[in-house]
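Chapter summary example.
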Amino acid sequence: MNDNRDLDIMVSYSDEYQKSSHKIAEASFKEEKAWLKVQSLSVRCLASAVMMSSDVPIPLNGCLGEDKDFTNEDVFESVTDNLESHLQICQTEFRQLMQFPINGPRHTKLKAFLDKKHGQVLINALRATLHIKKCQNNGIESEKLGEKFSHGTVDILKERVAKAREGLAENKDCYPEVLADIVLVTETISYLAIICGVCHKMLKPWKSNLQRKKKKKGHQETKLPSVFSSFSEIFKSLVQIAKEVSQLAQDIIPKFLHEEFQDIHIEDHLTEKENIIHEIHTKATDSYKQSANDICEILKRKIKYLQSLRL
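The structure predicted for these 311 residues follows.
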């Protein structure tokens, strides 16, 4: 991978600046590659989860070797292990980010993704998905599986939404940060919607099989494992979280519109100060509206999909 960004614009000809500029470019490139790898591995995990639930052979592409027979669960577990390992490395290497200049490159979402536990949510959901597959294959009942999934995913997302809501209510200067949080939560909900679809596809026939066995044995009073009711509640909880995030995205706009831009410093010799402030406000508001609309549209589709998952 090569860095084709133009980061060599000279602000200063001093040797000190040129040296720091080179270090900044290297640090930014390293961070970009790490974040791209997170995204790549995440997509690979989701793709292999879907293929695992459909019993479609997952192409190895040399990742586990070609001399042995590997099951779909083996491939899925390997890719999940790779993602978890990479996230742990990133957690160590990017614990403290280099301060970039205003005219320099922007940081990725990697640190926020890690610090706000979105990576942990994804890993927990993937591990639970693998556990369901193994339970389905072996006929093992895991009573605490739904509880673990909920605690490792739903509870963390609820915490993120609550903090975003508090930030929006208490601090008028935090709109960019709140919007960035909402975007990350929306992306994580999108990932979880796919994973929930995979879990539903495995749990539904498992439940039907257990119900048929109950009817044959005549034990109608025997209760089904709690994993089915637990995941039904998880689906409902994710729908509720998605609705709250959608509402939060919409709430940013009216709050932003009420903010005054009079504290923007305009040089005295410039004319039409009010027009300049109004133009800045209008462009910023339009940008927020577009972002909020995009978020709401994505969440609308995820809510509709999650509501279709019934056990």
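To summarize the output: Residues 175-217 form the longest helix (43 residues).
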